[in-house]
Amino acid sequence: MSGSNKKSVQTLAFSKMKTEAQKIITIPK
Description:
0% strand; single chain; 1 helix; mainly alpha
């Protein structure tokens, strides 16, 4: 696996995490 490919995967995982966090934050209690 190339370094750039690994970085891309990390970025994708990070942005997915951010989306999940946003969903949790926006859920009304």
